[in-house]
């Protein structure tokens, strides 16, 4: 399998684009300071390695997901973890992400994707994709280059795609797509090659985009939508004309549960066969054998980093001493235990597990060990010894964000900081966070761009100034950081990149301090021991080879 592997994967957030991730070692509970481990194979009764001949004891798989899906539109801002999981079953992308090394870091490959091959121009300022011919969409129309152009042009107003020259991007013929670039870099390949591709004709003929990006979604993935019950469930069936390997299980029902405890009860009663966003207490109980051989677990590492952000447009947060005081008052171990029940690992770099080889910090050198006395001194230096009230916003894409907010708010009371917590739907949250009016002070989320890149590319392409972070960092006042980021983006020398990244992190934690990375989280699944060969990568999953035994 040929692919392009990246030495760093950026920005883990509630949003991903790959569908593979299986492993070769059993899941184990993590010390919060331990590095994230390799992907784990399903624990429990897995004696039968394969169903053989595509057979399965049951032809309907019922999945208990987290919050319900309001849209499958990446540009909408309302994508939940459940939406990404569903897209991985019904959608397709130009290239496919796989995790062959089982470390949470993906590579892009043509195998299993809608692309036969692709190549860069000699100057690296253009990419040509050659599509597989004869791929059928769910509405029986054929996938053409015009569909790809239509889907990707939707992002031309996003700053993430500012380096794509859409005016000179074109469908060369029915099966060839050419993307003209204003600058080169693997970050652009990721953004182009991992967005969902769907039917232009079906989208344009739909009664509304709202309908198309829910019940009317037409792509060319292994499953197609049969029924959409808003807020409750989505029913899928195998797409008989699928261009790849046909799934073993014919039908899938995705049920939504806002409360993980309810999903666990459904798993116990047989109402679902697996849950994709379990409560970590339940996950621990299964791991500890509390349910005997009834259930198994699946763990894979993830680049998702739960983080606390400071809105640099907020007048209250202008004193660096206040931001540092919050850092010193924070007990990240307590947040990890209270939210993730000890699973995952604390983050000591600007972002997640992909930067462990680059970060200048570790458990011993971390500059913000919990120190309430230091935090109180800094509050006094900031002239805030009498206290301050801060507004915190977060979202319900998963329940973990609100838990982090509640624990943090309780900790900050120790330094006379009151926190007003506001939880929103993802789309509303994104809109609020993108505002630059200083209406909020703190936010809790995960960085939005989940694709492989270098931290230099992340800075230089203006990511900090768009998408989820527009309200976090003003466009002016941080020229030094942008200049260093630009140098990083242009460099292809790993040694030079490591040196500059270390310099950037040193300045960030001691001079800039726009946010605090808290926790690297893996992907955790609980399922019936009768269900086998489910593989996951971040919020995505591949169930094409899954099957049931008696």
UniProtKB/TrEMBL annotation:
The keyword Disulfide bond belongs to this UniProt entry's keyword annotation: no
Leader sequence segment: 1-22
Record keywords, A-Z: Signal, Transport
Superkingdom per UniProt: Bacteria
Span of domain Solute-binding protein family: 113-446
Region Disordered, annotated ranges: 24-59
Family as reported in the entry's similarity comment: Belongs to the bacterial solute-binding protein 5 family.
UniProt protein name: Solute-binding protein family 5 domain-containing protein
